[in-house]
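At your convenience, could you comment on the folded chain following this short note?
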Amino acid sequence: MSYLLFKYMHIVCAAASFALFFIRGIWAIRAYPSVQEPWARALPHVIDGLLVFSALAMFYVSFPTAWGGTWMVVKFVLIAIYVVLTTFVLRFAKGKMVRLVFWISALLLFLCITSIAVLHNPVGVFLLL
């Protein structure tokens, strides 16, 4: 398969994951009951699974030159922090203000991760300052 196919699949899944987290975060803050519906709980796992699959496929297809250096290490570390923040927002946070603060933090972190991936630089968008 083509590297570009996996790359665009990765980009679409990342955008869908962001959009779904944005909506689920609003639901969690407003205590909207639909956040516990089966489709709202299953769809993020499907999208994130495809996201991981496309990342591994890109790595496999371009194996000899796949490792991007320090920017990729920073991206992986920030992704781990993002996963912790999103889990906290959607499951463990008590109170609307706490959820709001962690939700906004997770959204900003996602945008930072995206800028690191696009610019292939460990400082991401802060490179432009």
Q: What stands out?
A: The mean pLDDT is 87. The chain has four helices and no strands. The first helix runs from residue 3 to 30. The chain has two domains: 1-66, 67-129.
